[in-house]
């Protein structure tokens, strides 16, 4: 009974602000999101420092110096790396540049947790400073992560720019806030003509869904703000959209894991255990049982429950957000430092960096759909790029039959329908708007083509069945599932199935308003033509998509 009482007291103490963080490893890796433009960016005039006036260069350097001074005074540790602009930074924008040679496993940056902006899907995490600005805090609490971070940034910019360190010192976040972009060129801001220039219905559909959801969340939040709140005037749609763009392009995410390591509750527990045993209230074994329950409580709260409910944390980390993205072969990783209570950028174990070399991070396998929609740039030769063709039910069967030299057998399409291989419709459903996420824009269950794997193997299976003769169908047991493996319908069936896939891709390219060659010619003259940021981005995007289709068609022709 005494042991139970001690356990109950310790657990209650823990539940009243004495929290602990127990990490499965001292460094938790995250998939990082970034804001920067890559080579096919629309940043005309930033590819060379010759295009930037001397006064602009001075102003930019002064802003960089102010940011680095702020970082130093705010407790951000920086070693062998600086914020830089112009060459050799990719696209001539801002990035992290080494100031000396850097060896593998070197920590370049450490940013204290109290300087970050964080939210999560866990109901355990609260933000009372922001919640108190709402008449109905539930609107903020239940908002998507990007909307909550948008509000947090607006509050920091217009209401209260101070952050409090663990020792009670105030840190003014204004220099970092002022380093954020004031203008974004993400497709949610584009007009109809600019979206049509993408020549890609799946992304256009996703952008419209994103816009609908963003406006819906903004209406809910603006109605929930107290009229007397200082947030009331600051929360305009333009400000909210700016905050959403900052959040989506600068945040990184990982599994929710409570807070960092805090020795105080464990020291207090040991003190109580010593007092409990020293006063003769019970045995050491009973006291140990109580302390064990406290540890179990921490593990349950910080790891078991978040894993069970699939909680996720989203963080904007000042200064680290200056690192640019590389889809494959990044130089450094972002990690949570368990004992230091902060976030770091460290070079990979297999990477040596030379002086004046840009430091790249990655934020995971993102297609150009996601990169353009949420970050405002296009990655050339993106290894993770994807093209969503119309679903098989919308393919031109007559054209495929002509290309294959075969008339497809009656009833085969119904067999594919029964097997769920004809897909949905190109546009998808409007009721999907609330569930959009960064990723592949495949709301209509279309045919997926990837740079890494080519056309979806399930579609090749469907085509083997579709093009099969009566004899091939019978030999395969008259079942679509028996066409899964290569040559399962015979060598000639395999050749015809791949020919059908190749023809479908060629038809997709023929339906475009411009050819790849025409687009590449326009790209080479973009500065002469005076193309806008949006026009350049749309052009870069469709060039990459057409390259992906051509590569896939060529690969199919070789087999």
UniProtKB/TrEMBL annotation:
Top-level taxon: Eukaryota
Coiled coil feature spans: none
Record-annotated membrane-spanning stretches: none
GO terms (BP aspect): methylation
Molecular functions (GO terms): protein-lysine N-methyltransferase activity
Keywords, ordered alphabetically: Methyltransferase, S-adenosyl-L-methionine, Signal, Transferase
Pfam families: Rubis-subs-bind
Domain Rubisco LSMT substrate-binding: 452-549
Signal peptide: 1-20
Protein name, as recorded: Rubisco LSMT substrate-binding domain-containing protein
Source organism of this protein record: Chaetoceros tenuissimus
């Amino acid at each position: 009974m005494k042991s139970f009482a001690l356990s109950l007291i310790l657990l209650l103490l823990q539940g009243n602000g004495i929290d602990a963080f127990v990490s499965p490893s001292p460094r938790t890796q995250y998939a990082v999101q970034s804001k920067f433009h890559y080579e096919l960016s629309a940043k005309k005039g930033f590819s060379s420092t010759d295009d930037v006036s001397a006064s602009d260069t001075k102003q930019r350097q002064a802003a960089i110096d102010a940011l680095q001074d702020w970082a130093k005074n705010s407790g951000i540790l920086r070693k062998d790396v600086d914020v830089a602009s112009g060459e050799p930074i990719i696209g001539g924008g801002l990035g992290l540049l080494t100031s000396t040679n850097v060896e593998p496993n070197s920590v370049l940056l450490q940013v204290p947790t109290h300087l970050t902006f964080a939210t999560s899907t866990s109901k355990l995490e609260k933000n009372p400073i922001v919640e108190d600005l709402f008449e109905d805090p539930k609107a903020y609490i239940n908002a998507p992560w990007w909307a909550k971070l948008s509000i947090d940034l607006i509050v920091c910019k217009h209401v209260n720019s101070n952050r409090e360190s663990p020792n009670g010192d105030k840190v003014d976040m204004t220099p970092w806030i002022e380093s954020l972009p004031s203008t974004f060129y993400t497709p949610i801001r584009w007009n109809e003509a600019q979206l049509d220039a993408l020549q890609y219905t799946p992304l256009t559909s996703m952008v419209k869904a994103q816009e609908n959801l963003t406006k819906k969340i903004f209406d809910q939040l603006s109605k929930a703000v107290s009229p007397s709140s200082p947030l009331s005037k600051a929360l305009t749609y333009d400000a909210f959209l700016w905050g959403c763009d900052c959040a989506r392009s600068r945040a990184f995410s990982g599994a929710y894991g409570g807070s960092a390591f805090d020795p105080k509750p464990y020291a207090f527990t040991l003190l109580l255990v010593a007092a409990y045993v020293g006063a003769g209230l019970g045995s050491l074994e009973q006291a140990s049982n109580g302390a064990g329950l406290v540890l179990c409580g921490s593990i349950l709260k910080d790891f078991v429950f978040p894993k069970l409910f699939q909680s996720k944390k989203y963080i904007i980390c000042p200064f680290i957000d200056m690192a640019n993205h590389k889809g494959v072969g990044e130089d450094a990783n972002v990690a949570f430092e368990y004992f230091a209570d902060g976030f770091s950028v460290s070079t990979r174990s297999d990477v040596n960096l030379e002086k004046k070399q840009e430091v790249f991070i990655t934020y995971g396998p993102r297609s150009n759909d996601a990169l353009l929609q949420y970050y405002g740039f296009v990655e050339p030769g993106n290894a993770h790029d994807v093209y969503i063709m119309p679903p098989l039910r919308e393919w031109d069967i007559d054209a495929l039959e002509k290309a294959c030299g075969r008339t497809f057998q009656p009833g085969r399409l119904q067999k594919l329908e029964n097997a769920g291989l004809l897909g949905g419709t190109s546009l998808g459903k409007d009721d999907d708007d609330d569930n959009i996420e960064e990723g592949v824009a495949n709301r209509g269950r279309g045919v997926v083509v990837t740079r890494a794997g080519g056309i979806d193997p399930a579609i090749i299976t469907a085509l083997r069945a579709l093009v099969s003769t009566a004899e091939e169908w019978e030999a395969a047991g008259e079942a679509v599932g028996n066409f899964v493996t290569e040559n399962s319908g015979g060598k000639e069936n395999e050749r015809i199935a791949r020919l059908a896939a190749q023809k479908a891709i060629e038809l997709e390219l023929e339906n475009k308003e411009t050819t790849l060659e025409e687009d590449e010619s326009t790209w080479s003259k973009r500065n002469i033509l005076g193309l806008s940021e949006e026009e350049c981005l749309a052009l870069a995007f469709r060039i990459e998509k057409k390259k992906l289709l051509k590569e896939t068609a060529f690969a199919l022709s070789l087999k």
